[in-house]
Design brief:
The chain is 72% helix and 0% strand. The chain has 183 residues and is mostly helical. The radius of gyration is 19 Å and the shape is elongated. It starts with 9 loop residues before the first helix and ends with a helix.
Length: 183
């Protein structure tokens, strides 16, 4: 199931869940609070999955690839209009999501790129800020604007073109796992 595009009413949600609207409002004061908690739940689930990747994988390039592969699965799960709806109608939820994305890139993905450069797996002339902006920060825009490219191409194909091919262009001869990750 993908998250849809239309705004929902609390009556529709209560009916879908088989509970009263009053029960929902017992736990959430507003729809924005409900959506914010939902976004936090999704972020926590995502971070748990990332933690498992970081725990089970030592190679910084492989970590980036696995994390981004996971990110693409999440992007495919949402309709673009759901993400735009959050931005348009649910300010607090949008702030939570944007703050998470920015913090995650700075605290997890960029340090992995730095580690790969330090180990001489990636070329030293890689502009980290530009790479992060192009392939991490703007990823959602690249995939969904002006249209959802997942409608025409599989997640695997888009992932290959955006992430794998971009990283492959900066790999040095010192990186020995090239065939494993980039074949």
């Amino acid at each position: 199931m993908k998250f849809g595009s239309k705004r929902f009413s609390m009556n529709e949600l209560a009916s879908e869940l088989g509970i009263s609207k009053k029960t929902i409002y017992k736990h959430f004061k507003t729809k924005d609070e409900l959506i914010s908690k939902g976004i936090r739940f999704i972020i926590d689930k995502y971070l748990h999955e990332v933690h498992q990747i970081l725990k089970n994988t030592k190679d910084p390039i492989e970590r980036i690839v696995l994390i981004q592969k996971n990110s693409f699965q999440y992007l495919n799960y949402f309709k673009p209009s759901f993400l735009y709806g959050i931005k348009k109608y649910y300010h607090n939820a949008a702030v939570i999501f944007e703050n998470f994305k920015s913090y995650f890139i700075k605290s997890t993905l960029k340090p992995l790129l730095e580690e790969a450069i330090e180990k001489e797996y990636l070329r030293k002339n890689l502009n980290l800020d530009l790479f992060c902006d192009l392939y991490f920060t703007k990823l959602q825009n690249i995939v969904f604007e002006p249209k959802n490219i997942f409608e025409d191409y599989s997640v695997a194909v888009v992932f290959e073109h955006l992430i794998i091919n971009s990283l492959r262009g900066f790999i040095t001869t010192n990186y020995k796992d090239t065939n494993k990750l980039f074949s």
